[in-house]
Amino acid sequence: MKDLPARRLLLVHAHPDDESINNGVTMARYAAEGAHVALVTCTLGEEGEVIPPDLAHLAADREGGLGDHRIGELAAAMRELGVTDHRFLGGPGRFRDSGMMGTEQNHRPGAFWAAGLDEAAGHLVRVIRSLRPQVLITYDPDGGYGHPDHIQAHRVAMRAADLAADPAYGPDAGAPHTVAKIYWNRVPRSVAEEAFARLRRTAPDAFPGIAEIDDVPGVVDDALITAEIDGSAHAGAKTAAMRAHATQIAVDGPFFALSNDLGQPLFTTEYYELARGVPGGDDGSREHDLFAGVPDEDLAPGAQA
Ligand SMILES: [Zn+2]
Fold it and tell me: Which UniProt keywords apply (predicted)?
């Protein structure tokens, strides 16, 4: 057991790689500033497609083994971001990647999508009550783009935040804790449009094709954005972390592609919508610190991990 720093940030993601794509600069920034940054990943991403030909045998429809391989990729990515606390919900392999919506994998035994909400959330309650984070980051109710594991990660995170705060829940699961602020991952539509225009203008042939804006998770009207984290100082760390997920991501300069070979922008400023809690700014402008407005009494060190 060790005492944790005063500021504590928890991220809940579906698969290894989602954290680096969505939150790489945010995680690197807060880790560099000395905050405690903890990542909970809900599955091993066993159903992912594999980009490098020499690793193609790891795919679930071939020899398998991709989940174990991605444990190593995630660990390497976390080293790039300076994040030392990363865990799998219920332990590695407890919940399995559910595949894309509508596939038979959705309902396979152990699939995260098929898991009981309170059973899955119960694992996260213990993490929340132990680390006592002031800020939680996860997806919006659609999981950003409708992947069943992303939708389920959202549901589990929101449910666990409720249960963790409920004094009547789980007397053996630690003292109740209320997360002060919950953010959903977002991308402002104007930023996405501008970045895709730059991709078409400056690197039209970098990838076999170019993705559509709707392929980018979490794109919404700019007015919904409440916080932005400028990561220019940590763009290199984010890029390196994404490269560490080599089975899933091909990076080319300020752009990247997933296994569909469609180029898309690599965002080095990350955006959020405050879904729960009180915004830190008093003038309605965007926050530039996710801990803004958290009361001093909630920023005491002393939680233990
Ligand atoms: Zn994912």
Answer: Hydrolase, Metal-binding, Zinc
Closest to 87 measured CA to CA, from 117, 116, 51, 130: 130
Using the mean position of ligand 1's atoms as its centre, give its distance from the Cα of residue 150 in Å.
Answer: 6
Annotated binding site for Zn(2+): 15, 18, 150
pLDDT of residue 300: 79
Query: 45-77 pLDDT, tens per residue?
Result: 999 999 999 999 999 999 999 999 999 999 999
Centre of ligand 1 from the C-alpha of residue 230, in Å: 23
Which residues line the annotated binding site? 15, 18, 150
Counted residue by residue, the chain has a size of: 305
CA of 167 to the centre of ligand 1 (A): 32
Cα(77) to centroid(ligand 1), Å: 15
CA distance 111 to 10: 23
Give the number of domains in the chain: 1
Domain assignment present for 87: yes
2 is a domain residue = no
Please give the distance, rounded to the nearest whole angstrom, from the Cα atom of residue 17 to the centre of ligand 1: 7
Distance from residue 153's CA to the centre of ligand 1 (Å): 10
Q: How far is the CA of 156 from the centre of ligand 1 (A)?
A: 15
Three-state secondary-structure class, residue 274: strand
| Residue 69 falls inside a structural domain | yes
97-134 residue pLDDT tens: 999 999 999 999 999 999 999 999 999 999 999 999 99
CB 136 within 8 A of CB 38: no
Distance CA(248)–CA(21), nearest Å, equals: 11
